[in-house]
Design goal:
The complex is a heterodimer of chains A (about 350) and B (about 550). With about 350 residues, chain A is α+β, with helices and mostly antiparallel strands. Chain A contains ten helices and twelve strands. In chain A, helix 9 crosses helix 10. With about 550 residues, chain B is mostly helical. Chain B has one domain: Cytochrome c oxidase-like, subunit I domain (Cytochrome C Oxidase, Chain A). Helix content of chain B is about 65%, strand content about 0%. In chain B, helix 3 packs parallel to helix 5 and helix 6 packs antiparallel against helix 7. The interface between A and B is large, with 107 and 108 residues.
Chain lengths: ~350, ~550
């Protein structure tokens, strides 16, 4: 059962093969991997040292500064420690006498108090500057405003000015230095605490019920950036994944235009639509332009415009859609999506309807 | 003084039937027996918590693993964290304090022996309550056996809405109950240290370990109280329907965070300051020099205690505090590096110019110095709020605090185990096994926790039961898991050594380390009354004065 599920969701390698490959890495390529890890080119690795947005840039610059200072401290203290251990070990054939009893030295102790105070002062000032620049940034008029609502194990994204509601995959325009179009995100929660974290674009900020938080990004390069919920929020915290698609201005305009359309109504899938609207689906899901206006689950108006389902837990394929409706626990055990208990025939029709929601 | 106690060394209690023996341990109010009970109880939970950690690491060895269910994984990290902090680290340090403080200040027992017993049994009851959740947690809902809300149990996940059944009730009650035990210990330590010192032991002549336990006890009184209050509020929320943390009825999730971390950060110092105490006793003896800069060591610890009360919200840099709040907590957090740095330098100063003896306790102390240095430096990184926005709740943080708690506190505690084992049992541990334990544990520790930093930098959040392949996390997680297994083997060596040596080890004598504090002047193990004659001291190292009458310490202090 478990194996079948894995294959359907699209994971190919077995445990055994992975173990073997991992051990191979461990013994042969460890050093190589170590040096390569921070230098990987465009890849889905959400490396905090590969920033592509101003807040993440600022953080990275501060991080490197802090790393250099701490590395220097480490080298000094570690050298002293190693020197003391090698120099002052009791020698073979020691006469057993006690070494000179030294109780302390005010001058030396003053020195190793004052020097750290100065280091702390420098670090504090550098840090305070970045806090100001990230937290006190004022949104320009051209900023895109998004509201992100954390739900147990998925993300709701609303663009109030554009009248768009979508889920799990956020689209934002690339921000040019000459013509900045940053995205300001208002963070809310519908249930428990969550945290919005896409490492290459910004640090994380929590989504807390009864509280309004905010953050901003201004991605410099187009592409897809991955992240995920970073505050434990319940059983399926692990599969509350997050994608940000950074589009060119033209792509973004096209995407907005498409998302603004109500759902396409095709007679071919009327039977599936009837099933959708006459079962519990509509209690939780909305499809614009129909009577389905549930808000507990993701908006499905343009479901097929998204690459994944179940907050990134599975790719958005016909097979996975069916599996997700038949037995959500096979993809994401503990998610709040119920098994729909439809027979195969109805499931086919319903899947066809969902696939028409382009 | 020492010659009198040596004369009593041969006196052992006559053996008694098993039933009476157990009865005597359960009803004991002797600080040494309670100390040993605390330590054994913590060791049991250390093994349980270690098994929970191993289960998590096996689950994470490869992406999309199916070793355990998400529900079970979430229970495991909750139980692991709660167990290790509240039922291993705190009681083990209380145990050493209980055992050592009266002996080191030349007293015959704690100030309140019955409160002492009460505190231990409250802590023990708390641990049992927590683990009883495996039996009783389901309630009528079938909602999952053990708590799965995380060890800091953020609201509103703990509200009835999100946590059905009784597992969270068991969690909060166990912290509530053991909190009373901790507060009892705090009061007892303060009273004992302030009132029970032997003649002429002024505050300035107390062994550093006693000073540090005094400061720890004060922090316990200040910090555990809000935690206990918060548990009372959570109980009211869950049982009576109040709304302190119930966000759906207008309660505040952030309020819980403040309550928890105003306890949670001082808690780090509750744990690490006794570890500093072990260092400050063991490093001098094995370097054959007095501690470097005693007054500054005391002052630095008092400073740490004060500042530790004002840093709690650095655990909350990502909850959306305004920039001024964040800046304030950056400042306080970074300042704490100064007194901590002073301590590290003073231990270095103690080693400097000495004649270091590389016995197992000293090896653990030297590893502590190195690892605590690294932990402090990653702490500075986390203290820089913007860097923290990236690192918070990632595996980097997990690696950092394990560096503090395992690399620092547990290493120092192992040093203490080996150092005072001869005093507690009257027998020497096996040095070869001790060194095997040390090197295996160092290897396992570094495999696990060095490499655990990296997936955090690559965006891997903590508390996820599985992860996506292809994000650059796979190899690191595999190394981390292998390291955990090596650590497990090392712990087996340690336990085997303790068990074997307690019964079969060589007789240790009163003072196997040629040490300088009062506990080494009485027999090993000490009689119930500790000292036949209450000692009198003239300096911080009374036994040095006895052994070197030509050059006593009191000439220089």
């Amino acid at each position: 059962m478990a194996c079948r599920t894995l294959e359907t969701v699209g994971i190919t390698s077995s445990l055994r093969a992975r173990l073997k490959r991992g051990l191979l890495f461990l013994f042969s390529g460890l050093t190589l991997r170590c040096s390569a890890v921070f230098a990987q080119a465009a890849s889905p690795v959400p490396n905090i040292f590969k920033p592509e947005s101003t807040p993440a840039d600022d953080i990275q610059r501060l991080s490197v500064f802090v790393l250099i200072i701490t590395a220097l401290i480490f080298i000094v203290v570690f050298s002293l420690l190693v020197y003391a251990i090698t120099k002052y070990g009791r020698r073979r054939g020691d006469d057993g006498s006690e070494p000179p009893q030294v109780y302390g030295s005010n001058q030396v102790e003053l020195a190793w108090t004052v020097v750290p105070v100065l280091i702390v002062l420098v670090l504090f000032l550098a840090t305070a500057r970045v806090i100001q620049s990230v937290q006190e940034a004022i949104p320009p008029a051209s900023a895109v405003q998004v509201t992100a609502v954390g739900h147990q194990y998925w993300w709701e994204f609303r663009y109030p000015a554009l009248g768009i509601v979508t889920a799990n995959e956020l689209h934002v325009p690339v921000s040019d230095r000459g013509r900045p179009t940053p995205t300001y995100i208002k963070l809310l929660s519908a249930d428990t605490d969550h945290s919005f974290w896409v490492p290459q674009l910004a640090g994380k900020t929590d989504l807390i019920p009864n509280r309004i938080n905010s953050m901003w990004i201004d991605p410099h390069a187009t592409g897809m950036y991955v992240g995920q919920c970073a505050q434990y929020c319940g059983t399926q915290h692990a599969k509350m994944l997050l994608r940000i698609y950074v589009d060119t201005p033209e792509q973004f305009a096209d995407w907005v235009a498409a998302e603004k359309q109500p759902a396409q109504a095709s007679d071919d899938v009327a039977a599936g639509r009837h099933i959708f609207e006459s079962t519990a689906c509509v209690n939780c899901h909305a499809v614009t332009g129909t009577m389905a206006d549930g808000r507990f689950g993701p908006d499905l108006t343009h479901l097929m415009s998204r690459a994944t389902i179940a907050a990134g837990a599975a790719t958005n394929t016909r097979e996975n859609l069916k599996l997700w409706m038949r037995s959500p626990d096979a993809i994401k055990p503990g998610s709040l999506m119920p098994a729909m208990n439809l027979d195969d025939h109805d499931l086919e029709l319903l899947t066809a309807y969902l696939e028409s929601l382009k | 003084m020492s010659s009198e106690s040596i004369a009593l060394a041969g006196v052992r209690e006559p053996s008694r039937p098993l039933g009476l023996l157990i009865h005597s341990w359960i009803t004991t109010v002797d600080h040494k027996r309670l100390g040993i009970l605390y330590i054994l109880y913590s060791l049991l939970f250390l093994v349980i918590g270690g098994i929970e950690a191993t289960i998590m690491r096996i689950q994470l060895i490869v992406p999309h693993n199916h070793f355990v269910s998400p529900q079970f994984f979430n229970q495991m990290f909750t139980m692991h964290g709660t167990t290790m902090i509240f039922f291993v680290a705190m009681p083990i340090l209380f145990g050493f304090g209980n055992y050592l403080i009266p002996l080191m200040i030349g007293a015959r027992d704690m100030a309140f022996p019955r409160l002492n017993a009460f505190s231990f049994w409250m802590t023990a009851f708390g641990g049992l309550l927590l683990y009883f959740s495996f039996v009783g947690g389901n309630g009528l809902y079938g909602a999952g056996a053990a708590p799965d809300v995380g060890w800091f149990a953020y609201a509103p996940l703990t509200a009835k809405t999100f946590s059905l059944g009784h597992s969270t009730d068991f969690w909060t009650l166990s912290i509530f109950v053991s909190g009373f035990g901790s507060i009892g210990v705090g009061a007892n330590f303060v009273a004992t240290i302030l009132c029970m010192r032997c003649p002429r032991m002024t505050l300035g002549r107390m062994p550093l370990l006693v000073w540090l336990y005094l400061i720890t006890a004060v922090i316990v009184l200040i910090a555990v109280s809000p935690l206990t209050a918060a548990q009372a509020m959570l109980c009211l929320d869950r049982f009576v329907g109040s709304h302190f943390f119930d966000t759906q009825a207008g309660g505040s999730a952030v309020l819980w965070m403040h309550f928890f971390w105003i306890f949670g950060h001082p808690e780090v110092y509750i744990l690490v300051i006794p570890a500093f105490g072990f260092m400050s006793e063991i490093v001098p003896v094995f370097s054959r020099k007095p501690i470097f800069g005693y007054p500054v060591m005391v002052a630095a610890t008092v400073a740490i205690a004060f500042i530790s009360m004002s840093v709690w919200a650095h655990h909350m840099f990502t909850v959306g505090m305004n920039s001024y709040g964040n800046t304030f907590f950056v400042l306080t957090t970074m300042i704490i590096a100064v007194p901590t740095g002073i301590k590290i330098f003073n231990w270095l100063g103690t080693i400097w110019g000495g004649k270091i003896i590389f016995k197992t306790p000293m090896l653990f102390c030297l590893a502590f110095l190195f690892q605590f240095l690294c932990a402090g430096l990653t702490g500075i990184m986390l203290g820089a709020a913007p860097f923290n926005w990236q690192l918070a709740n990632s595996y980097f943080v997990v690696a950092h605090f394990h560096y503090v708690i395992v690399g620092g506190i547990l290493f120092a505690t192992f040093a203490a185990f080996y150092y005072w084992f001869p005093k507690m049992t009257g027998r020497m541990y096996n040095e070869t096994l001790g060194k095997i334990h040390f090197w295996l544990f160092v290897l396992g520790f570094h495999l696990t926790f060095d490499f655990m930093h990296i997936p955090g930098l690559l965006g891997m959040p903590r508390r996820i039961y599985t992860y996506e392949p292809g994000r650059g996390w796979d190899t690191w997680n595999m190394i981390v898991t292998l390291g955990a297994i090596v650590q497990g083997i090392a712990i087996l060596v340690f336990v085997a050594n303790l068990l074997y040596s307690a019964f079969e080890g060589k007789l240790a004598g009163n003072d196997p380390w040629d040490a300088w504090t009062l506990e080494w002047s009485t027999s090993s193990p000490p009689p119930e009354y500790n000292f036949p004659v209450i000692p009198e001291v003239r300096s911080r190292r009374p036994l040095w004065d006895v052994k070197h009458p030509e050059d006593p310490d009191w000439l220089y202090e």
